[in-house]
Design a protein that fits this description.
single chain, about 0% strand
Length: about 210
Amino acid sequence: MKTREKILLASLVLFNDEGEANVTTVDIANELNISPGNLYYHFHGKEEIIQELYSGFELELTDILEAPLQNSLSPQDAWFYLYIVFEQLFKHRYLYRNLNDILQRYPEIDRRFRKLLELKLRSAQAVADELVAANILDASDIQLSRLCDNVVLNLTFWLNYNSLRERHCRDDLTIHRGVFQLMSLIAPYLTDDFRYFYDDCCALFEVLSRDD
């Protein structure tokens, strides 16, 4: 692995563990046992590191959100899709845990994040429309619109809520909790033939929670 890639990986780990605002370029250099000058050769300050990390996150999440939907979407497919999305957000949790501060300090990321937020909303609507077409959900257009808005709201602030509620939680359980919360939002709109799926989700989450 090249030094530039090592710097990005170490920065991501430190930002996630310590909080981006609490990590300096000297901390990153010390973590890698390289000189600050060596780090500066690759990145002229922390802002450049943040920008590149965000670009990678944006590209990966956009690929996930824009992935073509199957014509025969099932509840299991929706669960799996949500898990992948939450997994990607958790991988860059430093961003979501300190979102407002980061967006204020990095105007370019603020502009791009707002576009990503709109993409999340369009993707949520596309999945919801597919579930309605498959007779898995039964909801009016206005109900679906409000549901999708709440889904994106949950996606954006779930990590902060989860950390306030339970400071120490297994990574996998944190992700499952986020998915389960979204499935709980969707549950009231499940058609009779698919209500069993939410019961299965509840049973699974209960087992995972007991193992924590």
